[in-house]
């Protein structure tokens, strides 16, 4: 299973595509449930549930909540990580009680990643995670995503316009005008600290 894939986009609106894809999946699910009761469907066709988590560039933290409370909002059930565990994975254990306006841009981005991974998703979809950050903060965020891949076996699909970030991926899918232009298998991905753009 590939652990990190990067989509390099040119003139493609990922969020619109993603919303349409999620809508299609939901419609298909409801159509299937109308046809078969869900319990019967699972009996006849084993279903592997896939949990997706979305990490978008607009961070959208709630200013009146602490970092821990912002992450806690995303927890779905007891099988999730605790908010403190997710924040600790992002090296933010000293920021549990900090409010968003007390955090740097990179720290806010890491709280947003913690909010996405708290659910223990099968796949983490990242839309331009370095887009609104300076170079050093961007590299730091990439290093934390790399840490998730290596230490937590997290599968990440990362969308970026920065081709150099693709050098750290196992697979790069290059798109132009909504069409796949090229697929590159990277046998020797670079570590985040070696990626330059």
Concise overview:
The protein is of the alpha/beta class. The protein has helices spanning 14-35, 38-44, 67-72, 83-89, 105-117, 135-152, and strands at residues 4-10, 52-55, 123-127, 155-160, 171-176, 179-185.
Annotation keywords:
197 residues; alpha/beta; globular; 6 strands; disordered N terminus; six-stranded mixed sheet; Rossmann fold
Protein architecture, described:
The protein is an alpha/beta fold and 197 residues long. The chain has one domain (4-194): Rossmann fold. It is 37% helix and 18% strand. It has six helices and six strands; from the N terminus they run βααβαααβαβββ. α4 (83-89) crosses α5 and α5 (105-117) packs parallel to α6 (135-152). The two termini are 27 Å apart.
Largest sheet: 6 strands, mixed
Mean pLDDT reading: 76
Going across the biggest sheet, name each strand in turn.
Answer: 2-3-4-1-5-6
Uncertain spans: 1-47
């Amino acid at each position: 299973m590939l652990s990190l894939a990067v989509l390099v986009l040119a003139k493609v609106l990922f969020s619109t595509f993603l919303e349409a894809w999620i809508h299609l999946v939901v419609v298909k699910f409801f159509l299937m449930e109308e046809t078969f009761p869900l319990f019967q469907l699972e009996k006849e066709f084993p279903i592997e549930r896939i949990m997706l988590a979305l990490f978008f560039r607009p961070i959208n933290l709630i200013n009146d909540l602490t970092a821990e409370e912002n992450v806690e909002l995303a927890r779905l059930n007891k099988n999730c990580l605790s908010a403190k565990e997710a924040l600790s994975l992002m090296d933010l254990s000293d920021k549990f009680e900090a409010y968003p306006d007390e955090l740097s841009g990179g720290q806010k981005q890491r709280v947003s990643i913690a909010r996405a991974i708290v659910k223990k998703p099968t796949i983490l979809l990242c839309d331009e995670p370095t887009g609104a950050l300076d170079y050093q903060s961007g590299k730091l965020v990439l290093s934390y995503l790399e840490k998730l891949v290596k230490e937590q076996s997290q599968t990440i699909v990362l969308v970026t316009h920065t081709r150099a970030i693709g050098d750290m991926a196992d697979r790069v899918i290059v798109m132009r005008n909504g069409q796949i232009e090229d697929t590159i298998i990277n046998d020797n991905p670079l570590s985040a600290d070696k990626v330059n753009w």
